[in-house]
Amino acid sequence: TILILDFGSQYTQLIARRVRELNIYSEIHPWDKCPEITENIKGVILSGSPFSVRDEKAPNIDLSNIKGKVPLLGVCFGAQYMAHNYGGEVAASNTREYGRANIVEHDLENELMQGVPQKSQVWMSHGDSIKSLPNDFYTIASTEDVKNAAYAVKNEKTYGIQFHPEVYHSTDGSTMIYNFVVNISGCAQDWTPDAFVDSTVDDLKKKLGNDRVILGLSGGVDSSVAATILHQAIGDNLYCIFVNNGLLRKNEYEQVLESYKGMGLNVKGVDASEQFYAALKGLTDPEEKRKAIGKVFVDVFDQESKLVDQAKWLGQGTIYPDVIESVSVTGGPSQTIKSHHNVGGLPDYMKLKVVEPLKLLFKDEVRRVGKSLGISPAILGRHPFPGPGLGIRILGEVTADKVKILQEVDAIFINELKTAGLYDEVWQAGAIFLPVNTVGVMGDERTYENAVALRAVTSTDGMTADWCHLPYEVLGKISNKIINQVKGINRVTYDISSKPPATIEWE
Ligand code: XMP
């Protein structure tokens, strides 16, 4: 394991990803909750931070159990922190350095720099520089403006890098990370999807024994992979529940249920559409709609789980970004914990223990694990779809009629994206039912019908997103098909807002 101590940099997760891409396991912990340094930890990386080390409120960590004992790499703030704390000088740069720079000189003999070519491009993002290094520290790379762009410490496996080796624009950054984690820390590159499946199945067997587990399937990637790996461990002691909330895509309920059964899962489909529609009746406020949907979901799930005798565990498809404690730097409480309730937050009285087999994985790793479990690409490559489903894509009151119309529109849109070979390039796509009627003319008749909006975005994690520049011909074809085939719609618009300031969903 590589331990990454997070000082609040926006790039900390990227460091973890770079390490994991080398098939080496890494874990992020907040700097003030450093776990015990056991033999398992082969190396430690200190992240960047929005703080300056000269700031009074800057994070302050005792490295005496780590420095000189375990291989240690400081990145940006991490590098400055060590320089500052061990007797060097860190001061504001004369010119603040952001963006592209090139290494003009480096010590090829140094093990961290091996294989890094001359003039290698690196990405800087800092307002401070290391003006002088502590005794025992020496420079191993410089750029035009920054003499101490990277350093090492005599007779120790301790290093600092001022730039960001983890970002894509540092062209040889991954070589430096490789040098640190493989050559210097001696990690074996054996953390593969297959190895993950084997060890997780073993752990789950030990942990769960003959206990029964209930899991709510959503049709999405995370819950499908979680269910499959649990099923490998405990077989039919896993009870899956797939709820039709009446707000799914066209034919999705039947198709997904079918494919789950094909996978050998013990799954019960529960059609609760009418319950959801009844709860949504008369509601127009987005938050009230979300709450109503969440509440019915909990009720249905609760009722169904009571039918499973002696269930002790609740399985969830929680993944790593949902559980990382991120360091808040904007004042307020010093930490925020992002928690995510895949099943909408269960009532306390259910008294189930929670088992989350994927909680250490990033999304793309979940897909790789899914592939190694033999789950079909059709499930693994699915676009994200919100829990409240079409309920938050029908603006205003939700009715069964509107759901039917929107399902048709959405199906045409998604099928045409697939036909055009664009589905996998788009991160998420869907249609929105607008609460306005507009005038149109069909044949010689005046129409006064609803308008829909199409939304397609690119993104990596849904936190930020841009609208997709879909080809006009494809958009034209989709619009024609929708207006000609879907009764009740006479106008199609395309959403060209990015997130921020808009969001992906309209509600
Ligand atoms: P927004 O609209 O916040 O959406 O930009 C970001 C991502 O989250 C999805 N989303 C949800 N997913 N329950 C979910 O499971 C929800 O209530 C929910 N709201 C939004 C959205 O589809 C997008 O992928």
Keyphrases for this structure?
Rossmann fold, 507 residues, 9-stranded mixed β-sheet, glutamine amidotransferase, GMPS_ATP_PPase_dom, GMP Synthetase, Chain A, domain 3, single chain, binds xanthosine-5'-monophosphate, GMP_synthase, alpha/beta, purine biosynthesis, 30% helix, 3 domains, 5-stranded parallel β-sheet, GMP synthase activity
Give an account of the 3D structure:
With about 500 residues, this protein is of the alpha/beta class. The chain has three domains: about 180 residues, Rossmann fold, CATH 3.40.50.880; about 190 residues, HUPs (Rossmann fold); about 100 residues, 2-Layer Sandwich (GMP Synthetase, Chain A, domain 3), CATH 3.30.300.10. The chain is built from 13 helices and 20 strands. The strands form four sheets. It has a nine-stranded mixed sheet, sandwiched between helices. Strands 12-11-10-13-16 form a five-stranded parallel sheet, with helices on both faces. Helix 4 crosses helix 5 and helix 5 packs across helix 10. The longest helix is centred in the middle third of the chain and has 21 residues. It is globular. The site of xanthosine-5'-monophosphate has 11 residues, from loops.
Named once each, the bound ligands are: xanthosine-5'-monophosphate
Profile the largest sheet. 9 strands, mixed
Instruction: Report the average pLDDT across residues.
Output: 91
How many individual β-strands? Answer: 20
How many domains? The number is 3
Q: State the shape.
A: globular
**Helical percentage:** 25-40%
Which architecture of the largest domain does the CATH hierarchy give at level 2?
3-Layer(aba) Sandwich
CATH class of the largest domain: Alpha Beta
Distance separating the two termini: 41 Å
CATH homologous superfamily placement of the largest domain: HUPs
Strand order across the largest sheet: 2-1-3-4-9-8-7-5-6
Strand content: 25-35%
Number of helices: 13
**From the alpha-carbon coordinates, what is the Rg to the nearest angstrom?**
26 Å
Category from helices, strands and their pairing: alpha/beta
